[in-house]
Write a structure and sequence with these properties.
Elements: E1 2-6, E2 10-16, E3 30-36, H1 38-48, E4 54-59, H2 61-73, E5 77-78, E6 81-82, E7 88-94, E8 98-101, H3 110-121, E9 128-132, H4 143-154, E10 157-161, H5 164-170, E11 177-178, H6 182-189, H7 196-208, E12 213-217, E13 223-227, E14 230-235, H8 247-260, H9 265-280, H10 288-295, E15 299-305
Parallel strand pairs: 1-4, 1-9, 2-7, 4-5, 4-6, 9-10, 10-11
Antiparallel strand pairs: 2-3, 7-8, 12-13, 13-14, 14-15
Length: 306
């Protein structure tokens, strides 16, 4: 089984306006409510690719109920720990530019956090655990490292998509892959990345730190995959970017779905980039038809190795 872990899920309330006046009345032309959180996005795209997963994390109040019901209506299994305070609601304003206001997460007690860890302790070497997104202040700062330590013991494969400080804590536990974008790679190494060679160079540094492989997103320029045997670049087709929220999560889902389905590294990576691109071209997350159409247009080139 694949388990996605979202410790700080949300409802993303997306509002479209023709223009935005900071100190005046604004009227939305359209609004949407989506279940949010990086791990939840991964579960949703996995389902689109016909791969089952169970969404883990914390949920509370009416927003938590909305998230659980929405996922269950989509035939995605959930096993959330219930918390006392409401799950957060984030506002995404799209007025020609994207403006985001993310709410703080609910308080999670130590007992509730331990309950989540107990669920992860029940994983086996047949399982994959995907941890993604931010961590609320009420959760230990080494939460991801604790999860990584548990998966190391149980044999479950670990995938991590999070900010620098969280990612670096899990590298000694040899995650299957991590997925920084180019900006995050620059932050990790306090450098400026100007070429594919730079991306590969710092990707290999991440391997030295413990990761088995790494996918570095390059935005509209595709992505680069690096492991100990090879470095591969995937270039996606150009199109109108509608929504960047969830694009990276879709990339993770596409890769995990491909590996789970027995695809080669190159084919799984092509699917990963197609999934991320399809989400960027959509108001919500990628559809299956869009992923398949874009996948046929993704080009793969081997930068070094096999």
């Amino acid at each position: 089984m694949i388990y996605t872990v979202t410790v700080n899920p949300s409802i993303d309330y997306i509002m479209f306006t023709d223009e935005f006046n900071l100190k005046g009345l604004n009227r939305a032309t359209a609004t949407y409510k989506f279940v949010g959180g990086k791990g939840i996005n991964v579960s949703r795209v996995l389902k689109t690719l016909d791969v089952d997963s169970t969404a883990l994390g914390f949920a509370g109040g009416f927003p938590g109920e909305f998230i659980s019901k929405t996922l269950e209506d989509s035939q995605i299994q959930t096993d959330f720990i219930q918390v006392d305070e409401d799950t957060r609601i984030n506002v995404k304003l799209k007025s020609g530019q994207e403006t985001e206001i993310n709410a703080p997460g609910p308080k999670v007690t130590d007992e509730q956090f331990q309950a989540l860890l107990t669920k992860i302790r029940n994983t086996t070497s047949d399982d994959t655990v995907i941890v993604a997104g931010s961590v609320p202040n009420s959760i230990p700062s080494d939460a991801y490292a604790q999860i990584a330590g548990i998966t190391k013991d149980t044999g479950a494969k670990l995938v991590v998509d999070a900010e620098k400080d969280l990612v670096e804590t899990v590298l000694p536990y040899q995650p299957l892959f991590i997925k920084p974008n180019k900006d995050e790679l620059e932050v990790m190494f306090n450098t400026t990345v100007t070429s594919d060679e730079d991306v590969v160079k710092y990707g290999k540094e991440i391997l030295k730190m413990g990761a088995q492989s790494v996918i570095i997103s390059l935005g509209g320029d595709g992505a680069i995959y690096v492991d100990k045997k090879q470095s591969i670049k995937a270039v996606n087709p150009q199109g109108q970017v509608v929504n960047t929220v969830g694009s990276g999560d879709s990339t993770v889902a596409g890769m995990v779905a491909g590996l789970t389905s027995g695809l080669s590294i190159q084919d799984a990576f092509k699917q990963a980039v197609a999934s991320g691109t399809a989400t960027a071209f959509d108001e919500d997350l990628a559809t299956r038809d869009a992923i398949e159409k874009i996948k046929s247009q993704v080009t793969i080139s081997v930068l070094d190795g096999e």
